[in-house]
Amino acid sequence: MAKVAFIGLGVMGFPMAGHLVRAGHEVTVYNRTREKAERWQATYGGRTADSPRAAAEGAEFVMTCVGRDEDLREVAYGERGILAGLGRGAVFVDHTTASAEIARELFAACRAREASFLDAPVSGGQSGAENGVLTIMCGGEEDGFARAEPVMRAYGRTVVLMGPAGSGQLTKMVNQIAIAGLLQGLAEAVNFAMRAGLDTDRVYEVISKGAAQSWQMDNRWHTMVRGEFAFGFAVDWMRKDLAIAIAEAQRNGAPLPVTALVDQFYRMVQQKGGNRFDTSSLILNLVEK
Fold this sequence. Notes:
By secondary structure, the protein is of the alpha/beta class. The chain contains 14 helices and nine strands.
């Protein structure tokens, strides 16, 4: 059993912190909206704190899962921030999908305090968090990873150290680039099948057993056919992630023509009011024409 702090109780962090309690860890949570922290405590037990610093004080591991680089800096720095309460030898594990730049920045800040830092973004969406089967891609040093990996196993099915600080975030960018293109292809395939007058259930049964199969097809084909998008990973968050990937690509020279195009297709979904729709809502750009 470890003493763990968890900061950020959104759709991912709320169940992730709950899995830590179920695994037997002593968990203290902080969330900017106090009511959500209290709801988490009523659901799982554990403790709540009035600031990130208070949550981090005395913790062996501090996990964060917030929205953007600026949100991470807000909870990390200042008199009420995590770093002010982070103890020597503690491990700061950030599950936010953020830039590689801030990962390296926080790695250096933790090292100055004789603590460890891991950038550890996750993949698997809300269902993966709720079921404790996330994929976690980590950047940092071997020692910090070796200590944190058993704790992350409370909600991670696959937990891998990818390389030095920033490598976890870079790997998550690869993940989002791959998903963006795949979802646009899936949207076009579903729309084509419907316009061709095919039985979409039969189409899925056949092609999902061949080379076209993917997680997205298995989990989103039928909901795309039905026009159901009020769940899953929001378009707003996908555009945030793609912006990070595109900015990094501009630095390293990797062309991302399809990713940039799909990002604009997501902008079109936002213009239709689909900001909080699942990423599979790309099909709306096709069926409404």
